[in-house]
């Protein structure tokens, strides 16, 4: 069955929240502090949808993944302790989560490939992201997909590892 990536709508909020709740529980089970402070929550999803930043990975009629995508919209990234590779337009993604029933199928990587296509379709050749210091699975995905560690950024007072991937421009 093929998968596609599209903007989320308000009718999908509860499905998205279920997937995020599963991811929050997984992070806790992994002994991580990430997402254990009441964030993300249903209001965050609503805000993502209102800003046209909410995207879902769908297989058939089922939502199997979620992320928020923003263009040039992450104020905390201006305060990096380190240095970004580029200072051009960028896509930033947050809140990547895959449905519990779909784990181990490489869908986080697939989601990130859709994000790269989204960037290129918008003539943007930089993707920036961050993750918790204890989110080893995400760090491994960043490494495998060619992201470069650029330094630290802070969210809600907590340091996070910041990454950037520069995409190849088709000539």
From TrEMBL:
InterPro entries: Acyl_CoA_acyltransferase, Bact_Acetyltransf, GNAT_dom. The keyword Chaperone does not apply. Pfam families: Acetyltransf_1. Keywords: Acyltransferase, Transferase. One of its GO terms (molecular function) is acyltransferase activity, transferring groups other than amino-acyl groups. Transmembrane segments: none annotated. Residues 3-170 form the N-acetyltransferase domain. This is GNAT family N-acetyltransferase. It comes from Flavobacterium faecale.
């Amino acid at each position: 069955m093929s998968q596609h990536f599209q903007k989320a709508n308000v009718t999908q909020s509860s499905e998205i929240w279920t997937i995020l709740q599963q991811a929050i529980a997984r992070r806790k089970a992994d002994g991580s502090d990430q997402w254990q402070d009441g964030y993300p929550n249903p209001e965050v999803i609503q805000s993502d949808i209102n800003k046209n930043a909410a995207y879902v990975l769908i297989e058939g009629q089922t939502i199997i993944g979620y992320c928020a995508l923003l263009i040039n919209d992450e104020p905390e990234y201006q305060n990096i302790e380190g240095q970004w590779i580029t200072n051009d337009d960028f896509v930033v993604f947050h809140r990547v989560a895959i449905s519990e029933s779909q784990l181990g199928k490489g869908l986080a990587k697939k989601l990130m490939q859709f994000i790269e296509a989204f960037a290129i379709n918008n003539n943007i050749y930089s993707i920036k992201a961050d993750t918790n210091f204890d989110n080893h699975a995400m760090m491994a995905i960043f490494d495998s997909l060619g992201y470069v560690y650029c330094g630290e950024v802070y969210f809600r007072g907590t340091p996070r590892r910041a990454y950037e991937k520069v995409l190849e421009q088709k000539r």
